């Protein structure tokens, strides 16, 4: 099953390269296919390097959630319909280039966070502290408290800027912001339980990294 998923992602990446190499109206969609397939494959690969004990089929994040899959499908539908109705909208190369840069930045930041965290990183929020859990505050964690979420946030929005999907740009931004706000609050409750004052001091010094998200409120 791992091989099937990896081959599927490799095939999608290859198709994306073929579309990207041409001058057709689907060139920017080719960029998107490469970005999407590389993101999911590298999620599995970096997890295999960092934390092989937590490795599973779910590490590809292909079945992240019903909402995630619905969002992807919505972006494909919007791109196709707008390409048929407003073809000039999908030919704004400078805007797609901005989206591609957002995608590259977001994915690189997320993978840097995963590599910096090492075995502390897990796709599932942990409710019990293990002997190997440590509070990581160096590297990209010195910039943001949640760099992997910051990276994913801008990566997801960047994919829609790349596709010149105005409706999904707004939808992705709102949905991602809400998801990460709830996820960060849930995770920080656990981190405060794990590390106590050490995490609270870190929280005071380093921002979450996401706009208008301060994390869980602590009663003094």
From TrEMBL:
It comes from the Eukaryota. It is an enzyme of class 2 (transferase). It is a multi-pass membrane protein. Gene3D superfamilies: 1.20.120.1630. GO terms for cellular component: endoplasmic reticulum membrane. Its EC number is 2.1.1.100. The chain crosses the membrane at residues 152-175. GO terms for biological process: methylation. It is found in: Endoplasmic reticulum membrane. Catalyzes the post-translational methylation of isoprenylated C-terminal cysteine residues. This is Protein-S-isoprenylcysteine O-methyltransferase.
């Amino acid at each position: 099953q791992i091989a099937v998923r990896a081959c599927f992602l490799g095939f999608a990446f290859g198709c994306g390269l073929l579309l990207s190499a041409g001058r057709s109206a689907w060139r920017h969609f080719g960029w998107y296919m490469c970005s999407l397939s590389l993101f999911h494959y590298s999620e599995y690969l970096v997890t295999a390097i960092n934390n092989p004990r937590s490795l599973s089929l779910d590490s590809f994040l292909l079945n992240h959630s019903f909402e995630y899959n619905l969002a992807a499908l919505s972006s494909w539908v919007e791109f196709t319909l707008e390409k048929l109705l407003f073809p000039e909208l999908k030919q704004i190369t400078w805007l797609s280039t901005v989206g591609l840069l957002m995608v590259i930045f977001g994915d690189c930041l997320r993978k840097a966070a995963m590599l910096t965290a090492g075995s502390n990183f897990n796709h599932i929020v942990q409710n019990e502290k293990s002997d190997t859990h440590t509070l990581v505050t160096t590297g990209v964690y010195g910039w943001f408290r949640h760099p992997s979420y910051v990276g994913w946030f801008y990566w997801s929005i960047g994919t829609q800027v790349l596709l010149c999907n105005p409706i999904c740009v707004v939808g992705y931004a709102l949905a991602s912001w809400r998801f990460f706000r709830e996820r960060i609050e849930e995770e920080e409750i656990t981190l405060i339980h794990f590390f106590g004052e050490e995490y609270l001091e870190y929280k005071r010094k380093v921002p979450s990294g996401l706009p208008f998200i301060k994390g869980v409120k602590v009663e003094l």
